């Protein structure tokens, strides 16, 4: 049984949304249609499949939790939805991750040292010549002004703080243009990409960003260093616990699907969801 309610494909043909039953409990087409908004997909059919998988898995977990009596004595003043609380209890009881030991942590660290490196660090100051990204004329003027300031600083770098205070459109002008210490992820992507390629000293070309053009001076550049196992062993343990939790949940869902009577949807679709 199916319904044409739900989303439309690019050619405006309605997409059939099946009525699904999971161990005798219905998931209606309207429920699938409501779930669709949370699963943007390349095609309407893929969206329906994904929404159906999610609802099937959620229903299976709730059914199992209720079978085990884990839906009793729910907190009345919690901000967490009751269904999440029930499923959380089930996962804690039935799909807890295996414990990890020191040997496993050391072995993972030895095989994946590149994951455990301190971040590159830059200490910089700048002068921002602001210009709207849509104003080509103003950006051209800002770029020329930035290049002119670079030429002046090449001749006499000790003017930097005064020039920042006079010309910069960034609040950092109050501290001589200093942005302090910067690691990756702290600035806009295009600015970050450019400055982390620079060497210490005055950049000989303006750095462009969405805000305009920057005169940049790299006061200090520290490359990330390999961290020792003792520095990160707790992080390694937590990572392995997370991996184990994911595997345990995936296997548990896989087993629930294998034991379930699911009608209205291809069984392999449900199985794929458990293996993700």
Helix and strand arrangement:
Elements: E1 2-3, E2 17-18, E3 20-22, E4 25-27, H1 29-35, H2 44-67, H3 82-94, H4 102-111, E5 121-130, H5 136-155, H6 160-167, E6 178-183, H7 189-195, E7 201-202, E8 207-209, E9 212-222, H8 229-259, E10 262-263, H9 267-274
Antiparallel strand pairs: 1-2, 3-4, 3-10, 5-6, 5-9, 7-9, 8-9
3D architecture notes:
Mean pLDDT is 89; it is low at 1-13 and 269-276. The radius of gyration is 28 Å and the shape is elongated. The chain has 2 domains: 2-99 and 238-274, no CATH class; 121-222, Chitinase A, domain 3 (Roll). The protein has helices spanning 29-35, 44-67, 82-94, 102-111, 136-155, 160-167, 189-195, 229-259, 267-274; strands at 2-3, 17-18, 20-22, 25-27, 121-130, 178-183, 201-202, 207-209, 212-222, 262-263. It contains 9 helices and 10 strands. 23% of the residues are buried. Helices cover 46% and strands 16% of the residues. Strands 5, 6, 7, 8 and 9 form a 5-stranded antiparallel sheet that branches. It is of the alpha+beta class and 276 residues long. Strand 8 (207-209) and strand 9 form a beta hairpin. Helix 4 (102-111) crosses helix 8 and helix 8 packs antiparallel against helix 9 (267-274).
